[in-house]
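Below is how a single chain appears once it has passed through the pipeline. First comes the sequence as given, then the structure the pipeline wrote out for it. We keep one example in the README because the format questions we get most often are answered faster by looking than by reading.
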Amino acid sequence: MAPYESDDTTTAGEAEEPRAGRRRAARYAVPVTVMGVAAATIGLVPALADSGDPDLPDITAAQLIEKIAQSDVERLSGTVKITTDLGLPDLGGLESGLLSGATGGEGGSSADPSGRLTELASGTHTLRVAADGPDRQKLSLLENAAEYSLIHNGKDVWGYDSASNEVYHATVDETDAKEGGAQQPPATPKDFAEEALKAVDDTTSVKVDGTAQVAGRDAYRLVVEPKQSGSTVGAVSIAVDGETGMPLKFTLTPSSGGSAVVDVGFTKVSFDRPDASTFEFTPPKGAKVTEDTEHDRGHGDFGGKPERGPKSEDLAKGLDGLRMLGEGWNTVAAFDTGAGAGLPTGEEAGGDLGGFLGSLGDQVKGDFGKGTVFSTRLVNALITEDGKVYVGTVTKDALVKAAEAGK
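Resulting structure:
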């Protein structure tokens, strides 16, 4: 089927009419949530080959966006592959120390999802997923001769690492879990698509670009691209199931070219209700069980409440002065850490550590003074010597210009 387009401006108006401020904030949220999911949640991010060219009825981009919005799939099971290529620096073994800290240090459990799911930040992984409404989900990360499973069933959240025979257990408020709990980062291609579509405005090109088969399902291709130069986002491609309207695949490619930064999709999928036994779990005999007694701790996408405490409160205070600079896909978030200084990169950082921090970024200067730019293939962040931070899905040059304009 030949590609067909709709008018970009009409599409944005018909699909959604958010206030300008909300659109700009949403665009900043897209890269942050994408990175957050890749780093620490159950985001589903596969490299998946499309096939076929199914003959589906013509549809406009506005109609396809509406079809996504109306999709109400809550029951499914399937297999997912995950490939994430953020271009993060090689930390030379520091990852193990960070992971140890995320799981509570030496006394932590290898089954704690807050540490295990950071593995999805890079490389390729295979997962099995299942869902039956908002209070029952399961994800299994398949490894060589081992498996890690994360299960939410009502008020219980279980993590199980077969390699170490360790179990993690936490409970959540059942009412909050059924209602979806607190706002969580995206966890499926549908969630990623909804976040990306919040960015649609008159700086965006939106079109239906033909059809494909994904996981044996006939799907439309929806392509979202920035009209502006200076963004690190090249294009977002969403494969939308022609029958249910559920996104089956989400791909974000960088403007610099090369492989996708994030690629989310199913290799197999069924919309039948999974068997109830799928979500049942009993700790195996002899397993070490760690109970999470921090009741206010979040639990990824499994209905937990957001983390409370001094760190969260301090962060919120630090973002009180959040400003959005620029427009469209070139929007940059700016805030003052209140520290009065940027990251230490010299002797004040402690010898080798200072040199290590400095080696991860590029030193820059401009009307704002001096600073360090830390880069991935998607998000760039500038931290100035006086403690101001500028972050966006923009190139290094565009970031420096935004900092000069917003000083």
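The chain has two domains: 4-291, 310-406.

See the next section for the split statistics.
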